[in-house]
Structures are given as C-alpha cells and as structure tokens.
Design brief:
Layout: H1 2-21, E1 27-29, H2 36-45, H3 50-56, E2 60-64, H4 68-72, H5 93-103, E3 107-113, H6 142-152, E4 156-161, H7 174-189, E5 196-199, H8 216-226, E6 231-234, E7 240-241, E8 256-259, H9 261-274, H10 295-299, E9 303-306, E10 309-314, H11 332-342, E11 347-352, H12 363-380, E12 389-392, E13 396-414, E14 422-430, E15 435-441, E16 448-467, E17 473-479
Parallel strand pairs: 2-3, 2-11, 3-4, 4-5, 5-6, 7-10, 10-11
Antiparallel strand pairs: 1-9, 8-9, 12-13, 13-16, 13-17, 14-15, 14-16
Helix pairs in contact: 5-6, 7-8, 11-12
Bound molecules: beta-L-fucopyranose (FUL).
C-alpha cells in the first residue's frame, strides 16, 4: 500500500511542477507531446495580464516629443549642445493634455529624455537638464507640469526615457546602468502614477561608438516595484512595437506570439526571483515580420506569450517640431486611415504631437485632430445593430431587422481578456434569395474595424470561418459614416 502511494505521488510530481511553472495565463509552454489541437487550444487560452488588458482598452494614446531638438531643428541631437538653447516662450502643458483629451486619447507619453540626454526634469544625477537652461530661470520642470495637467484632466501619464544617451560620460560602462536606474527612480517616484514606460531600441552610435550592455532585467524589476501597473513597451516585456512607424498595423495581428525555449526559461526564472505572477523578459526576434502569430508559426513554437502591438506614428513627418513641416501635418483623412489600420486592427495607436518652440501644439495639428474626432464620433455613436433581433449559433451571429438598413462600417470585438481565437470571418447580407459576402477578414482580437461602400439589407450576419477555439464575440456593430461634404 505504502509503495502504491509513493508511486502515485511520484507520478503526480511532474504534473504538479508543470502547473506551478506559470502562475500567469499570459504565457504557456508547448510540450513535445502536444498534438496540433492541444497547441491551438493552448494558443486560444493565452490571455493578457491585467496591466496589458487595461492598456489595450485605452485604444488611443499620444506621444509628446519636445526637448533640445525642438530648438536645434534636429531629429537626433548631438553631444555638447548648450542647455542655454532650451527656452520655450509659452510652454503650456495643459494645452498638450487638453488637445490629447479633445482627440480622445486616454494616456499621454512624455519624452523625458531623448537620445541627446537632455533631461526635461531637474534630475539630481546630471547637469544636463532644464535646471541649467534659461527657461523659468532654471526653476522649471516640464515633467511636473505635464503630470499636474494630466491629473487635472484625468489623463494617464506615460514616460519615455531613452536608453541611448549621447551626452552621458557614463554611457558604455556598467555605471550607466546605475545612472539609468537612478533617473528611472526619479521619474517613477516624483510625479505620481505612471501607466506606461517606453524604452526605445534606437542607438545611432557608429562602428567605433560606445556600446552599452543594458541591464534590462534590473530596469524591469525597478518598474514593477515602483509602478506595478505600468506596461513596459517596445524594449520591454508587455507591449510590442508593431514593426513600422507608418501608422499602419498588420491586416492579420495576433496578440499571441511564439517564443523560444530560452525565453520561456528566463520568464520562469525572473518570475521566481521577483516572487511575481508574471515573469519579465523581452522576447527577442524580428518584430517587422509580416507573419508573427499564424497557425503555422504557433504549431512550431516552444511556448506562447501575450505580446500585443502598439502602432507609433507622428502627426508630422518628424518626431520633433520643424516649422517647415507646418504644411505637412497629416490630414484628417490620413488620420482616419491610420485609425482604421491601427485601432481597427487589434493594436493601440500612439500618435505623436510635437509642440513647437513656444511650447504649444501648432494650430494645424489641433485642427486635423479636431476633424478626426468629429468624424469618429459621427460614425461610431449610433450602432444600428442595437435595433436588430439577434440570433446566435456556434459560428454565426445573425442580425435580423424589421426594415432595411444602410451601413458601411463594421466593428467586431472578441472577449480578448479570455484570449484571441478568430482566424477568419465574413460579413454577409441577405439579398432575398441568398447570402452575399460584403467583406471578409482574418483576426479580430480586441477590435476590428471594416470599411466598404454603403450596403442595404434587412438581414446581416457575421460568419466565423476559422477559429482556434469556441469564439467569444462581444460586439458586432454596424454603423453608417457621415457622407463627405465636398
Ligand atoms: C525612434 C527614435 O529614434 C525617434 O527619434 C523617436 O523617438 C521614435 C519614437 O523612436 O526609435
């Protein structure tokens, strides 16, 4: 009897260890014995961490690139540019926040230090800051002004701190990691809640330039300790760069992507070390690939993680303000196009609004945003599907209307907090004799938006063609966009 019990116990250990391996549902290991169906089921069950889910629901966020480059008319700064050049005449952080709010953004990411190393707050750890500029007699703090304005207008705050630092004499040494953590600590303790930390991967040091071995894990640990709700984006574990800076995300965008064995091991180790539910480790690999998460990729994976896409783009050609780009501000039509191709493709949009030398967002940018917002509101306020009688089966949602409706936009949402499942779908209308396809698509995820010429019908259906597990559609909306006034 005793032997039987110990045998049973021994048999149970591997299963026990396995289930303890990932206490979080945003990562899963694929075992050598898993068959394709098991793997797809696992893929469908990977779901976001709470911080990832709350971030996704923001939909639209803005970036503010402002700093030394605004005054030197550059995109990337140079070593030794005098702090004396930083002198905005009418800096108005509240105007930035109000503009973002008017456009519908829910979070504002402030560039606190760009690659040139100039700090927009009076950091104790360097002299290269606003403290040594003429602005406000050296008593100013841009980050404090932004944080106050965000608080006042209930806008979430994010921080961009460039890992690459052209100015710091420590860059390229181990001490730089300490310095970088000191600066992060200032930003994450002096200004209230921070909901996103954005680490840029860019480094323009040439072949003879300094090379920094970044201690990423130590940065992540610090952020998790000081601001546990903050997502760490781009060179980080929570949010993935979509792969371009054009504003256009992938047609097929999976939030669940494969990871290799060593990444899985790092995740387990970091989670144990930090005694946290989710481990922190940035998955390596090419983020620009067109196919990151297809069935083919998933079936060959060692593990899968929830790693959703962020689409970053500037409203102007440059990330910083240049007066010769005043006529090149993206039109409301282009912004709408970007909206459908980012928010409408299972991504979060991060739109950059660069203030000018005065420290204000230019009127042309404000005008474009205002128009974009009014078109979005006019399009998506009235969901025509609310008037329909709804009939659901496993793979079809039928909207049955008592009279003919006209629509030209569709909004779909999956219950993404439970995972992403749909691989392909079609929207069809009944023409009296048969179902007729209006448009088809691939992934849905958090949100999918579709545009087409107006159609008329009294019956419209969503047909799920292929899925990784039973789909959970939480929204099937139909809308009519306002007609363009010429
Ligand atoms: C890039 C940077 O080099 C640009 O200057 C800008 O900050 C953009 C958001 O990321 O990698």
């Amino acid at each position: 009897m005793k032997n039987c019990l110990s045998l049973l116990f021994l048999l149970m250990i591997p299963g026990f260890l396995y289930s303890q391996e990932f206490r979080s549902s945003n990562v899963v290991r694929i075992n050598p014995g898993d068959n394709p169906q098991d793997i797809l089921k696992k893929a469908a069950n990977v779901s976001p961490s709470e911080r990832q889910a709350s971030w996704q629901e923001l939909e639209f966020t803005v970036f503010i690139h402002f700093g030394m480059n605004t005054f030197t008319n550059r995109e990337w700064g140079m070593k030794g540019t005098a702090p004396a050049l930083f002198n905005p005449s009418e800096l108005d952080a509240e105007q930035w926040v109000k503009t973002a709010k008017m456009a519908g953004a829910k979070l504002l990411i402030m560039v606190a230090k760009h690659h040139d190393g100039f700090c927009l707050w009076p950091s104790k750890f360097t002299d290269y800051t606003v403290k040594n500029s003429p602005w406000k007699g050296g008593k100013g703090d841009v980050i404090a002004e932004v944080a106050t304005a965000c608080k006042k207008h209930r806008m979430k705050l994010g921080i961009y701190l460039s890992p690459w630092d052209i100015n710091s004499p420590l860059y390229g040494t181990d001490e730089y990691n300490v310095h970088f953590r000191n600066q992060l600590t200032e930003l994450l303790t002096l200004y209230g809640p921070v909901d996103e930390v954005w680490f840029d991967g860019a480094c323009g040091e040439g072949p003879n330039g300094k090379r920094q071995v970044y201690d990423w894990l130590s940065y992540y640990k610090l952020i998790r300790t000081l601001q546990p709700q903050a997502v760490i984006a781009i060179m980080g574990p929570d949010v993935r760069w979509v792969g371009t800076e054009s504003g256009y995300g992938r047609e097929t965008e999976w939030s669940v992507v494969p990871v290799d064995k060593s990444t899985l091991d790092e995740i387990v180790v970091s989670s144990r070390e930090m005694k946290m539910k989710e481990g922190v480790f940035m998955p390596p690999g090419d983020k620009t690939d067109q196919d990151l998460g297809s069935r083919e990729k998933v079936l060959q994976a060692h593990g899968l993680i929830w790693y959703p896409a962020e689409v970053d783009v500037s409203i102007r050609p440059g990330w910083f303000y240049h007066c010769d780009q005043d006529s090149l501000v993206k039109s409301p039509e282009t912004l709408m196009d970007i909206w459908y191709s980012s928010v409408g493709r299972n991504s979060v949009l991060l739109l950059n609004l660069p203030p000018d030398e005065r420290g204000r967002i230019h009127a042309n940018d404000v005008a474009s945003l205002k128009k974009m917002r009014s078109v979005l509101d006019a399009t998506f306020t009235n969901n025509l599907a609310k008037k329909a009688n709804i009939v659901k089966t496993d793979s079809i949602i039928l909207l049955d209307f008592s009279k003919t409706i006209i629509f030209d936009r569709v909004m779909l949402q999956e219950n993404f907090r439970n995972g992403q499942k749909v691989e392909s779908f079609a929207i069809e209308t009944w023409n009296g004799n048969a179902w007729h396809e209006i448009i088809h698509g691939t992934t849905i995820g958090y949100k999918r938006l579709l545009r087409f010429d107006p159609v008329w019908s009294d019956k419209v259906r969503l047909r799920i063609i292929s899925t990784r597990n039973v789909p959970e559609i939480t929204l099937f909306g139909l809308y009519k966009a306002p007609s363009e006034k010429k």
